[in-house]
Amino acid sequence: MGLTQAKTYGSVGAILSILGGNIPRIGNLISIIGFILILLAVKEISLVVNREDIFKDYLVAFILHLGAFFVFLIALISVIGITVLQGIFWNLAGKDLESLGQIIKGLLIGGILAWILFVLGSYYLKKSYESISIETEVGIFRTTGLLYFVGAILLIVFGIGALLIIIGKILEIVAYLSLPENIKKEMTVRGG
């Protein structure tokens, strides 16, 4: 059974998702296309190895990561909106520290909620990639999932967590490129 499409979708998607953040104006669109291609690759792999849980876990991860992004975005927009409405920039000159405290509190709450969703999503991504690793015998998927998960946990210590996630993104490209063209039929019986 073939994994050619999954290999192509996954490797191109992983490349686009990592490059998208570095391209002005259309970078977000490129990243979204990359994530969708990875989603299609995981779906293809789950069909080939006959394990729905692989795709379901990845889909849960995708939804939770998207939720984390929107929670943080909503918190940021809310804080900016409240700031503008209250005229906080002018009030700061008048030593309005209570308003500044509310802004910081709003950002912290939004950031913590987003972080929790991101960590949960990374756990499901790790589960999905561990299953792919078992079914395809490509061990780099297991390492990629682990790096994402540990990176997400350590994201509070921005430098360390972000670095681990970037390394995970690079290994994700390698993992998809390492997929075999075909998978042996007996491999699909194991773990399914």
From TrEMBL:
<dbReference type="InterPro" id="IPR010397">
    <property type="entry name" value="DUF996"/>
</dbReference>
<keyword id="KW-0472">Membrane</keyword>
<feature type="transmembrane region" description="Helical">
    <location>
        <begin position="146"/>
        <end position="171"/>
    </location>
</feature>
<dbReference type="Pfam" id="PF06195">
    <property type="entry name" value="DUF996"/>
</dbReference>
<keyword id="KW-1133">Transmembrane helix</keyword>
<protein>
    <submittedName>
        <fullName>DUF996 domain-containing protein</fullName>
    </submittedName>
</protein>
<feature type="transmembrane region" description="Helical">
    <location>
        <begin position="103"/>
        <end position="125"/>
    </location>
</feature>
<keyword id="KW-0812">Transmembrane</keyword>
<feature type="transmembrane region" description="Helical">
    <location>
        <begin position="26"/>
        <end position="46"/>
    </location>
</feature>
<feature type="transmembrane region" description="Helical">
    <location>
        <begin position="58"/>
        <end position="83"/>
    </location>
</feature>
